[in-house]
Amino acid sequence: MMLKITEAVNFIKSKYSPQPAVGIVLGSGLGSFVNEIKIEAEIAYGDIPHFPVSTVEGHSGKLIFGELGGKKIVAMAGRFHLYEGYSPEQTVFPIRVMKFLGIETLLISNAAGGVNPAFQVGDLMIITDHISQLAPNPLIGKNYKELGPRFPDMSEPYKKHLISKMKKIAADKNIKVREGVYVAVTGPTFETRAEYKMILTLGGDAVGMSTVQEVITAVHMGLPVFAMSVITDVGIREEENTITHEEVLQAAKDAEPNFKALFCELIAQL
Questions:
Q1: What is the DSSP code (8-state) at residue 144?
Q2: pLDDT score for 58
Q3: I want to staple 114 with a disulfide (CB 3.0 to 4.6 A). Which of 65, 90, 231, 232 is the partner?
Q4: pTM, 2 dp
Q5: pLDDT, tens digit, for every residue of 12-42?
Q6: Distance CA 5, CA 90 (A)
Q7: What local confidence, expressed as pLDDT, does residue 244 receive?
Q8: pLDDT digits (tens, 9 = 90+) for 107-162
């Protein structure tokens, strides 16, 4: 594991030497956020040693380096999911690499299904906590003390000071944000009506197929995390419950202006 991380980091540094301060993971349909970045380098995932390759529409599959809000950043334009056939270890490998590139804060976004009956398509939800038991933990297996402790504390996976900062930014910009608990599932199927009801009963406000493994990995390594979901569909409803990936991408695209405004300002204030 450590050798793979080192080889990936050394390759990236041979292409781009400045140290990024902020890492960003862009979810489905949010790829045009990269237009806000003053791009200095792009590296395709397929060129990086030991990196998986994105196979999902809406994920372009490259690391983007540059400047945003006065900060050096690295952005993942596309992430990896369990449902693509990757192991938990593979899905979180880029998070470990970004840590060893020198990032000090990790910002994560995703497209998620709304479970809270009060939510509407297009809402932005600050993730305050998560439920991970419905998807495999990426730390199962050998622990590497160079990465973090065997039993990491998860009492504050999403840093309260970053949540407070984002809430103030949203209020100042008059952008409505929700707060809630994100429940991770493996996918690739969207949830049944009964599953949506179960997730609501468990205390979930939104459900998705990513993010939690990345957050667990970041916390394991001592990286502060902020995460936000774009609610792209609503599962608890009486009418037809059919959901398509194309609808998810479109809903994310429609919500992107507010998402961009919030994330850009948060980065500027870090």
A1: -
A2: 56
A3: 231
A4: 0.94
A5: 999 999 999 999 999 877 778 888 999 999 9
A6: 11
A7: 77
A8: 999 999 999 999 988 999 999 999 999 999 999 999 999 999 999 999 999 999 99
**Fold (CATH) for 2-13+20-269:** Rossmann fold (3.40.50)
Q: Diameter of the chain by CA atoms?
A: 55
Q: Tell me the two tokens of residue 160.
A: 């309260």
First to last CA, the chain: 30
Q: What is the pLDDT of residues 60-83, one digit of tens each?
A: 689 999 999 999 999 999 899 999
Q: What is the DSSP string of 106-136?
A: EEEEEEEEE-STT--TT-EEEEEEEE-TTS-
User: Could you write out the DSSP letters of every residue in 15-81?
Assistant: H--SPPSEEEEE-TT-GGGGGGSEEEEEEEGGGSTT-----STT---EEEEEEETTEEEEEEES---
Closest CA to 95 of 84, 85, 86, 106: 106
